[in-house]
Inverse folding.
């Protein structure tokens, strides 16, 4: 099939793809909901089997989360393409009453539709395309869907890394940025800074007290001074709390710290700096919990080459594919750190990830399906 014929194939399948997207979105599957995770994974497995291909499917139990899903197709000796995504969403059960699954004009709304259930349907559509046309991708295909991506992938990471280690390239179906794919993502660190001071009556003997809140606010100023926008490093205190009531010099205070960086060198520098925080007031103790969570996904030459290939595929059916680098991390970060080239943000164009106006554009569904299919054909 020529690229234009492939695009036509998917345009003809648009209503079936819409039905499939509607179905998977309607199965709400927030992180930590074991039963719902299993339900959505079962749906995905059934859909994959409908194509009639010879598939090796593995469900990996994830305690407290549900199931990760691995689907291997077109076995062979060549290194596989890894198609990556997740089956969990950030939306609690019932959120779909506030953002019902529906189409208005070109916008297809739903909870988790953009991040990233419509991306899962694209993967399934690629399998179906090869089954129906009798064509084959140029390499084996492995699909990996974790069930705890939205909460840090602590369970999914080792399973993913095992699958990714041997991959030729990794294609991530996370949301695009206004259609642009993501060739770089910052890494993340998550920390908690705790201060424990000396409580005292604020009126009778304040001099006996040492305020945890005062100490923490000084530490927050220090943390803020670590920002280095030029290096791509950001440090933000996102929540803070402390004290018990008026009248009392506060004994406890703590804050959470969000750190983003563009290189592992910066990650190490920031990790050391935060762990080296020492109290301004010796009577207050300061402790730091946390670590680097996701390493940065760096825009290496191999990543650029993969993007150029995808752009050429898109251009072959007159589709313009831009690129961008973003601050948010995904499971693609883990794969990139293994030295495997990663192209992220291959999901259908849309907006509003993690919000109640989350949607994709119907007019982009066939484009993205054709893009991914042709990309793994070459
Ligand atoms: Zn996502």
């Amino acid at each position: 099939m020529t690229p234009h014929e492939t695009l036509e194939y998917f345009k003809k399948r648009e209503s079936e793809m819409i039905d499939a997207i509607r179905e998977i979105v309607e199965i709400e599957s927030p992180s930590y909901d074991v039963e719902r995770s299993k339900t959505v994974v079962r749906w995905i497995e059934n859909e994959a089997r409908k194509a009639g291909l010879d598939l090796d499917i593995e469900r990996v139990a994830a305690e407290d989360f549900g199931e990760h899903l691995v689907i291997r197709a077109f076995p062979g000796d060549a290194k596989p393409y890894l198609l990556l995504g997740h089956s969990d969403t950030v939306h609690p059960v019932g959120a779909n009453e506030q953002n019902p699954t529906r189409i208005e004009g070109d916008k297809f709304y739903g909870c988790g539709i953009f991040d990233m259930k419509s991306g899962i349907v694209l993967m399934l559509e690629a399998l179906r395309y090869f089954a129906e046309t009798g064509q084959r991708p140029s390499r084996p295909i492995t699909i990996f869907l974790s069930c705890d991506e939205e909460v840090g992938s602590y369970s999914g990471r080792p399973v993913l890394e095992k699958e990714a280690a041997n991959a030729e390239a990794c294609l991530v179906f996370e949301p695009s940025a206004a259609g642009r794919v993501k060739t770089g993502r910052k890494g993340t660190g998550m920390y908690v800074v705790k201060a424990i001071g000396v409580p005292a009556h604020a009126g009778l003997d304040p001099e006996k007290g040492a305020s945890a809140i005062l100490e923490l606010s000084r530490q927050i100023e220090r943390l803020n001074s670590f920002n280095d926008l030029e290096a791509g490093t950001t440090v933000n205190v996102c929540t803070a709390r402390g004290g018990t009531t008026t009248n009392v010099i506060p004994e406890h205070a703590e804050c959470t710290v969000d750190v983003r960086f563009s290189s592992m060198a910066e990650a190490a520098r920031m990790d050391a700096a935060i762990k080296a925080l020492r109290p301004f007031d010796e009577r207050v103790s300061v402790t730091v919990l946390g670590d680097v969570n996701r390493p940065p996904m760096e825009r290496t030459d191999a990543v650029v080459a993969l993007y150029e290939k995808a752009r050429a595929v898109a251009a072959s059916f007159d589709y313009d594919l831009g690129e961008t680098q973003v601050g948010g991390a995904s499971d693609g970060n883990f794969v990139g750190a293994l030295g495997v080239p990663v192209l992220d943000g291959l999901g259908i164009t849309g907006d509003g990830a993690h919000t109640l106006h989350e949607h994709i554009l119907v007019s982009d569904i066939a484009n993205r399906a054709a893009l991914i299919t042709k990309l793994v054909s070459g």
